[in-house]
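debug: dumping io for the single-chain case to check the tokenizer round-trip. Nothing else runs in this session.
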Amino acid sequence: MTITDIIKNATKEAITSLYGESPSQPITINETRKDFVGDFTVVTFPFTKLAKKKPDEIGEELGKKLTEEVDQVTGYNVIKGFLNLEIADSYWSNFLQSVNELTDYGQLPPTGEKVMVEFSSPNTNKPLHLGHIRNILLGWSCAQILEAAGNEVVKVQIINDRGIAICKSMLAWKKFGEGETPESSGIKGDFLVGKYYVLFQTKLNEEYAEWQSTDTADTLYTEKAKEGQSKEAFFKAYEKKYFNEYSDLGKETKALLLQWEAGDEDARALWEKMNSWVYSGFGTTYESLGVSFDKLYYESNTYLLGKDFIDDGLSKGTFYKKEDGSVWIDLEDAKLDHKLVLRSDGTSVYMTQDIGTAELRYKDFGTKKMVYVVGDEQNYHFKVLFEIMKRIGAPYADGLYHLSYGMIDLPTGKMKSREGTVVDADDLVAEVIQEARNSSTERGDLDHISEEERSEIYKKIGLAAIKYFILKVNPQKRMVFNPQESVDLQGDTGPYIQNAFVRIKSVLQKAGQSSFPLATEYTSLESVERELITILHKFPEVIQAAADHYDPSLIASFNFDLAKSYHKFYHDCKIITAETPEAKDFRLLLSSNVSKVLEKSMLLLGIEMPNRM
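debug: decoded output
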């Protein structure tokens, strides 16, 4: 039983004893604000009607009774109806001893639930980029957190390996590639395919610019332009229609897509070859980020799924058919408008595929909870999908969740894939690792070890910098990633937290002992020691909150608070040269358990700790 459970139960009993009736409302226990004395605060306002007294009077009576009857409570004060309770040093000392005896502190009991987390899910026409990194890190971290919260977790992705964008890369390579391969060029496979995706857009822009000077374009501008609209503005807005109606490259691309859909041997062979380059490149990037999946799904295998659900829904009146043969669903009562689920020619839309893919995953894994890690530009899509799944009676419909996240920019601004202004994931990782190397080299801290060891440490620091900087931000917020700020050893960064861990390892190594027998005899805690232990005490609660809200930033905040508190403790308290043997053992025990929790908690963010920096 936790201290908050003890306080809640004791408060309920005290209220009943004092006022003759058990409270009907939940008892609220909060951490005491730092500007007040105390550890936990009981809110007394809900008891005024029952007690027929003012909140501060209830606080005084309740505080006195709890202090007298609860061993763990040693003092109290009341501020405007808020009862602040002070917890005995012995409780915190005993708690630290209990944490030390556990090998899996923070791991919550099994829930018996299986959760699927879908993340990454890239297109095969370009490399993974900075935007993908936020997605990947959020998905991986949420999976780790959900496991720590007692769930069985399945990590999947669906690779978008078909469609018009893929055919653009294929056509550009076919027309301009001259047989170039990753092996012949020395270019990583996904980078090579991305190169041709950008080249396609370059060639299309050239074609479009030339076409704009033709008589056809002049006539079109004269007939279609709005009053006062310049040629530049008109043709900028007309680009998509040009691709679909006039462009030679557009015609060739759509013809290639039709060939692929018809199973044309040459089109399929080219598609398989170029996709294999991309898969290899993706695999290298995932490995460098420390990420893996339990199952991969491919859109080329799932894009025909879902039609059976539509047919069944038509027979039940869930969907309706228009005169042109297209099938829709009316979601106006859910404030979601009407949504197309099958085109008039019978082909699927993305919504149809997602319906079928959800059912496929349910059959594969039996997961009644599915978390989709997808950017916030798809909020409407997932609202519609989840509402449809409810209406067709999917048994897992209530367990569907969209982990919506904001876009990520660089200090230089937004990125655009087809213009080649995207920061590739591999380049970003290499840049931040180099920043870590530069920073460490300036300090000269690692000059005495081998280059191989240094490189491994730089990698851990660099990855910590990227992962922490991104994950410390609430997923729903748009953010700017700054490589230079991320590697700073001061402030709210991954390397700052790693530095606290390394500092502890150094202290423990200098102490030269693995057990701390006299720690139990240290009975009067310093305020900074209590602060550290109370932060450790929150760990399981923070894991549960992060799992409930699918929010790794709660774990990141916990890590920063713990590291910052340890740095203060290290500065304020002597450890190895403590004033007594009992104090020394206690502070070493405390240091050891802070390092243990830091290491585990950072792993929930996908971050490994170095032993030196």
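debug: round-trip ok. Residues 415-420 have pLDDT under 50 and may be disordered.
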